[in-house]
Amino acid sequence: MKVCVLVKEVPDPGVPKRLDPTSGRLDRTGARGLNPFDAHALEAAVRLRESAIPPVEKIVAVTMGPDGAARVLRRALSMGADRALHLSDPVLAGSCVVATGYALARVLERERPDLVLLGQQSDDGECYAMASIVGEQLGMPALSQVSRLELTGATLRCERQAEYGYDLVELDLPAVVSVGDALNEPRYPSLKALVRAREAPVETLSAAAAGIEPHRVGAIGSHTRVLAVAEPAARAPVELLDGSHPEAAVERVVAWLGERGLR
Asked: What are the pLDDT digits (tens) for 149-175?
């Protein structure tokens, strides 16, 4: 059984995000790392290898991005992935989530996985849509926001977060599943694993080698584009009442409402 895990390099969450006003794209300079939600997907794949029947024989980490994105693949290798596959090509630059999903699906078609795992969202785009897009492209059932999963034979039993509680869902493999951070606690790789991952090979695949049609990716193939970029409007100053003098606080609230014509 083969599991492919989609991983993504994202800006460090501790660094303020900035959009390039010219291109409308996220400025990706500065510190970057593995998307935190994808770490939970990697951990899920490793735990399936440790417990699933039939066993998971191969875990393949897949990413799309420029040369530097290979860093997250090495991180994935240190966390338990057996292979790392990097889709990298200038023609892919500027792809929206739909174009990215199409491109990744072409790579996954070559790999023929039994299960595709990924984080339910990325720290930069937060679209929550990649599992559905990839599933549609591959003709596989897709499930999102999974908080528990177990595999028995060719059936995946999942618990997913819903608006008012949880849904219990069974999926026949092959399938695409995005996971949330409630699923598990990703293990920290050992020093030996980090060293081994640094020396491990990373396979690089071009768009042409993956069978990607150039007109369906990049800025030209994207289904969405940024029309304008603006900072959020500044909030009005907040007045805090500590409540130590209730009568004075009530009087101030009444006065505040009166100043705004709300009495």
From this structure: 988 888 999 998 888 888 999 999 999
Has residue 185 been placed in a domain?
A: yes
Distance between CA atoms of residues 57 and 73, nearest Å: 19
Report the CATH number at residue 83: 3.40.50.620
Distance CA 256, CA 246 (A): 15
| pLDDT tens digits, one per residue of 7-52 | 999 877 666 666 776 666 666 666 678 999 999 999 999 999 998 7
Instruction: Confirm whether 29 is domain-assigned.
Output: yes
Q: Are 26 and 19 in contact (CB under 8 A)?
A: yes
Domain assignment present for 178:
yes
Pairing of strands 83-87, 203-205: parallel
The two structure tokens encoding residue 83: 């292979």
Largest CA distance in the chain: 74
- Convert the pLDDT of each residue in 206-232 to its tens digit: 999 999 999 999 989 998 887 776 777
